[in-house]
Amino acid sequence: MISEESEPSFARGRRYVAFLLELVSLHRRLFVIAVAGASVYALCTVASSIAVEWVIDNVIVPRFDADTGFSVDTSTVVAGGALIIGIGVLRGAGVVVRRAFAGMCQWRVAQTLIDRVSNRFVTQPATWHRRHSDGQLVARAGVDVDTTVQAMAPIPFATSTVLMVVVSGAWLLVTDLVLGLVAITVFPLLIGLNVMYQHRVDQHFDDAQQALGEFSGAVHESFEAVQLVKAYGAGDRETERLSLMAGRIRDARVRAVHLRGTFEALLDAIPSAANIGIVLLGAARVRSGDLTIGELSGFVYLFSLLVFPLRVIGYAMSGLPQAYAGYHRVKATIDEPLDPDPVDSIGTTEPPVAVRLTDVSFTYAGEPTPVVDAATAEIRSGTVTAVVGPTGGGKTTLVDLIAGILPATGGTVAVAPGGRAMVFQEAFLFGGTVRDNVTVGLSTDTLDDAHVWQALGWACADDFVRALPDGLDTTVGERGVTLSGGQRQRVALARALVRRPTLLLLDDTTSALDPATELAVLDNLRAALAGTTVVMVASRPSTVALADEVLYVDQGHIVDHGSHDRLMRDVPAYRELIEAFETDRAEPAGGAAAGGGS
């Protein structure tokens, strides 16, 4: 829990100070310049009240005084005007510097935090991502970072306000001890009010930020699965679920706003009442000769100017609980230890063996039954091996173990040295251009368009890419929405092929292609990447028949390993499965599905 009702105020204050110092340290120079500008503003604010006092006593009052002949020297008027204008210009410059650099500091800090969160996402292996909701992770790099940096903007002004209060408090006491004591007693009262408010509102903002993160994650996932939601008629259920989550955010924020309303009212009432008392008491002291009119005017003017900066301190303090709640979530992601990378557990083999599995097992955490159990096999270099088995038999998990996406919970996986590439059944494309999607992660200095077109040709994707409005520069939309399923699979395959991997892993990658295109793609792989070892999950008989060897997997076990013809002859269960695949493909629905590669 970020904050507890029982936590002492000083402990919470120390926590917030450490939080702010940590943010400031990210871009200290910008913050120091912003504070310097705010300090100039603060000192000029005190100086402006002194200038008002001087002008009233030396320019305005003499014009109504018969003893001076109702006249003032021109030089005095010019000096008064120059004094006020000069202080005003300097004060305005301080405001510009403070706002400009405070804004730059705020959003540079946001950029730094987003970069750190994103880098953590990238460096964490797939095992870590499987344990976390995509929507929650998006919220950490978006909503939570935005909430965190909201605390940055008012801090330079708030720090300069402390300077202003100290300097002005001293000047008020010097001007008139009695009025000064009355005025400065308001300062601790307002600060105490801020502390009390912050203490009570802390938990509400924490609850609201937590609920907002959960809501953002749920919305993201609901939009991602919008087709599934519609297909199962779950729209009303999703609407109700999201409405309940939004209601929790609303309730927490309403409670916080209710407290803030009371807080704002008191911040208005206390200084106003104090100002009335200062005017009344000051008038009496002017009558007694203890104050001049100019001194009283400057006194009231300065006290009025201090009210708004003191409210900024309250505003800054009121935003700290919510900002800290967001930062707590961001920091938890950044500081979370890296999961062991499954790739590091993979051993190496020597040709002619490309992949060696020795008693490999994998069991998901909390599950009693292994998905892959004591799998042992060798795959020769340069061959095409099909992984075949019934649904849920462990095919994809086996390929994930070879790819280093999942760590073996038993046995060893060894792969020949060289590059590995994997293409998933659900091809993921970024929202950029075709070129961006093929070359992602590669240096464009050594990879020109000729290499991109070559890879697209191997994947039988060059023809339809040339027909796109802008060719390689065509934007494919988020997740490749403007392309068909078969087109997305071929672009994703080209992304793998442009790297010329020594081991290519395909998880039913050609499932959305028609048989003729699939055959052309596999022929291209054999011709262009003759030395590449291909391991592919396959469920189409025509695909299986093209493989050099077949790994027959059932219930996590490698039942047999050999040629397709031998398995058809010697393994009845395999023969029945292939015949079932052929029967399924012969159905009208299957035939329609097979044509989806356009």
* Radius of gyration, whole Å: 36 Å
Number of helices: 22
| Count of DSSP strands | 10
Kindly give the count of domains. Answer: 3
Trace the largest sheet across and list its strands.
6-7-8-4-9-10
CATH class of the largest domain: Mainly Alpha
CATH superfamily of the largest domain: ABC transporter type 1, transmembrane domain
Inertia-based shape:
elongated
CATH architecture term of the largest domain: Up-down Bundle
Global structural class: alpha/beta
- Strand portion: 5-15%
Mean pLDDT: 80
**Alpha-carbon distance between the two ends:** 53 Å
Structural account:
The chain is of the alpha/beta class and 598 residues long. It has three domains: 9-335, ABC transporter type 1, transmembrane domain (ABC transporter transmembrane region fold); 340-419 and 503-593, Rossmann fold, CATH 3.40.50.300; 427-500, Rossmann fold (3-Layer(aba) Sandwich), CATH 3.40.50. It has 22 helices and ten strands. The strands form two sheets. A six-stranded mixed sheet has the order 6-7-8-4-9-10, sandwiched between helices. Helix 2 runs antiparallel to helix 12 and helix 3 (74-123) packs antiparallel against helix 6. The two termini are 53 Å apart. Residues 1-5 and 588-598 have low confidence and may be disordered.
List strands and helices in order, with pairings.
Blueprint: H1 9-26, H2 28-60, H3 74-123, H4 126-130, H5 134-141, H6 143-149, H7 155-175, H8 177-184, H9 186-224, H10 226-231, H11 235-287, H12 293-335, E1 347-348, E2 353-362, E3 372-380, E4 384-388, H13 395-403, E5 410-415, E6 420-423, H14 434-439, H15 449-458, H16 462-467, H17 485-497, E7 503-507, H18 515-528, E8 533-537, H19 541-546, E9 549-554, E10 557-562, H20 564-570, H21 572-586, H22 588-594
Parallel strand pairs: 1-5, 4-8, 4-9, 6-7, 7-8
Antiparallel strand pairs: 2-3, 2-5, 9-10
Helix pairs in contact: 2-3, 2-7, 2-12, 3-6, 3-12, 5-6, 5-9, 6-12, 7-8, 7-12, 9-11, 9-12, 11-12, 15-17, 20-21
